[in-house]
Amino acid sequence: MKAVVVTRSGGPEVLEVRDMPDPQPKAGEVIVRVEAVGINFADTLSTRGTYSGTPPPPFISGREFAGVVESTGDRVMGYTQYGAAAEKIAMKPKFLWPQPKGWSSEQSAAFPVNFLTAYLAYWKAGLTPDAFEPVLRHDLQRRRVLIHAAAGGVGTAAVQIGQLLSIETYGTSSSQEKLDRVKKLGLDHGINYRETDYEQRVQELTNGEGVDAVFEMLGGEHTAKSLRCCRPFGRVIIYGTATGQRHQFDTGAMMAKSLSAHGLWLSILAKDHDLIGRSLQAMQPWIEQGKLHPEIGHILPMEQAGEAHRLMLQRANYGKIVLKIG
Ligand SMILES: NC(=O)c1ccc[n+]([C@@H]2O[C@H](COP(=O)([O-])OP(=O)(O)OC[C@H]3O[C@@H](n4cnc5c(N)ncnc54)[C@H](OP(=O)(O)O)[C@@H]3O)[C@@H](O)[C@H]2O)c1
Question: CA 52, 54, 57: angle at the middle one, nearest 5?
């Protein structure tokens, strides 16, 4: 079978389409004929060899996918840590879910990681109806969330879910063009961080009050800045380190405003089938009503996997990048 292989640790240039042996399913596994793969920032980190749990190269790239179960013909989408960017993958059925009715494999491959991460960020922030640590303030103010990289894969999912939860969304991006597109999707306030300091802009836009939660995937000074963007009892949901720098905290601001920081990592949470099942179920009505859809900015053939990673690393992507397999 053809597969996108990480030939050695490095940048996009180390990705090559190679002939690889077909997967041999273990007991209880099924073979999925993969039709499309969603590209995630984590794939660039796995390629670089800096993502925890990545095997030594050579290995097959790709963590989320959609296709057809060989033995049953069921159309499924799935999640793994690597090995998805290939014509076939052997999977335990518990990491497979039915493709939403009427969706293509390209759409389905763009769904699991971005939408589960975004939904769980709202859940962790106490802003979904099923949150186990709900926000306890009972004032009638509309909740506000600041979403970093609002025009990216997780970002565009978070903007849509925010709108459905009646949350006022604030989003950062490096480009006005990307912000214009994500505003059409429902983003309330766009902030171009290349032109303006987002911490200052959030204070201006909220009359000095701040937001209820920040979805923080940058690391470095941005964690401290994100904490300072919060109003009292605000929560920063930490789920990435796109800058490659360790998260810095502003403990003074945390004490002064009773703020908290929460971690979120889908690679670990994906093993909690009850939580994942409930999150998918919560989004199901929105999908059926056509209110939630992956925002796909780029569809490329598997031979251009390197280009897909390059787009993401150079911040040139909008929404989701999907690879067509085969
Ligand atoms: N914890 C989890 O379970 C989990 C799950 C999914 C994703 N994530 C994290 O969430 C973040 C977004 O992931 P994604 O797959 O949806 O990617 P993405 O947002 O589609 O693409 C990355 C975007 O991040 C922005 N960015 C800001 N600083 C950057 C930098 N130093 N280098 C590269 N990009 C930078 C860019 O958007 P602008 O040009 O608009 O700034 C870029 O387009 C990543 O940090 C990823 O690791 C975490």
Answer: 145
The CATH number of the domain holding residue 49 is 3.90.180.10
The predicted pLDDT at position 132 comes to 77
Residue 114, both tokens: 């971005």
In a domain, 275, yes or no: no
Please state the pTM of the whole predicted model.
0.98
Q: Which of 115, 119, 114, 74 is nearest to 97 (CA)?
A: 74
Q: Which range among 54-58, 106-110, 129-133, 250-254 shows the weakest confidence by mean pLDDT?
A: 129-133
Report yes or no on 285 lying in a domain: no
Cα pseudo-dihedral 279, 285, 287, 290, rounded to 10: -150
Once rounded to an integer, what is the mean pLDDT over residues 157-181? 98
Domain range spanning residue 204?
A: 115-267
Q: According to the model, what pLDDT value does residue 209 have? A: 95
Per residue in 137-154, pLDDT (tens digit) is 767 689 999 999 999 999
In contact, 59 and 82? CB cutoff 8 Å: yes
Q: What is the pLDDT of residues 69-93, one digit of tens each?
A: 999 999 999 999 999 999 999 999 9
In this structure, the strands spanning 75-79 and 96-98 are antiparallel
| CA dihedral sign, ordered 51, 52, 57, 58 | negative
The binding-site residues of ligand 1, defined as CB within 6 angstroms of any ligand atom, are 40-42, 113-114, 117, 149, 151-155, 173-175, 178, 217-218, 239-240, 242-243, 264-266, 312-313, 315, 317
What distance separates the 2 farthest-apart alpha carbons in the chain?
60
Number of domains in the chain: 2
Task: Please say if the pLDDT value at position 133 is more than 90.
Answer: no
The answer to whether position 175 is within a domain reads: yes
Pair 213, 123 in one domain:
yes
Residue to probe by mutation, ligand 1, list 154, 159, 183, 310, most atoms within 8 Å of CB: 154
Residues of the chain above pLDDT 70, percent:
99
